[in-house]
Amino acid sequence: MKVLLIGANGQIGKHVVDLLQNSTEHTLRAMVRKEDQAETLKKSGVEAVVANLEGSVDEIAEAASGCDAVIFTAGSGGSTGADKTLLVDLDGAIKSIEAAEKAGANRFVIVSAFQAHNRYSWADNPIKPYMVAKHYADKALEASDLTYTIIRPGGLLNEAGTGKISAAENIKSGSIPREDVAKVVVESLNEEKTHNRSFDLMSGETSISDALKNI
């Protein structure tokens, strides 16, 4: 499967790059927003394209041309304001969904946010604009014609992954290494049990492959 990774320079995206670069099942095209980021990826043997989520749908669709799937791990980052959250996490995600449809990349995996589907869980959250953006981006993906997977990880950690997770429609609380989120993203590409499904994700006691088969 030829995969366009949107957000390849992010913390989860970099783990996904490593996994796809070494995959025997998939080939990678990494999308970044700066030329120097693309050059760095190219030097390590990664096919890279430059496109901006604040640009046009056509620009993103061109980046996705010839791809079978899109992975969206992009985000505006914690240091930006609500304006960038709106432009990247909401509108950028929706434009990417439209671009995937236009390019014929029918598989779409998105990294959302923990409990983004449940408004009551984040009614008083200090990052409520971010949660709202994720909520409606996920809604747009569900309403599309794409075969989707929506992954809602809990607190993100930079420690080494364990390869053990808990994945379910609703999980109370928890955290997970970014490395394990990336592994779940990549394994979801071919796991049919994750097709047209959304789930919360935390560290747990079950192997990633087994957990995804029992979503």
In short:
With 215 residues, the chain is of the alpha/beta class. The chain has helices spanning 11-21, 35-43, 57-64, 82-103, 128-143, 178-188, 208-213, and strands at 2-6, 27-32, 47-50, 69-72, 107-111, 147-153, 155-157, 164-168, 175-177, 197-203, 206-207.
List the helices and strands and how they pair.
Layout: E1 2-6, H1 11-21, E2 27-32, H2 35-43, E3 47-50, H3 57-64, E4 69-72, H4 82-103, E5 107-111, H5 128-143, E6 147-153, E7 155-157, E8 164-168, E9 175-177, H6 178-188, E10 197-203, E11 206-207, H7 208-213
Parallel strand pairs: 1-2, 1-4, 2-3, 4-5, 5-6, 6-10, 7-9
Antiparallel strand pairs: 8-10, 8-11
Describe the structure.
This is Sugar epimerase. Residues 7-191 form the NAD(P)-binding domain. It holds the Pfam family NAD_binding_10. It comes from Virgibacillus profundi. The protein is α/β, with parallel strands linked by helices and 215 residues long. The chain has a single domain, classed as 3-Layer(aba) Sandwich (Rossmann fold). Helices cover 39% and strands 24% of the residues. The protein has 7 helices and 11 strands. It has a 9-stranded mixed sheet, with helices on both faces. The longest helix has 22 residues, at 82-103. The protein is globular. The relative contact order is 0.14. The mean pLDDT is 95.
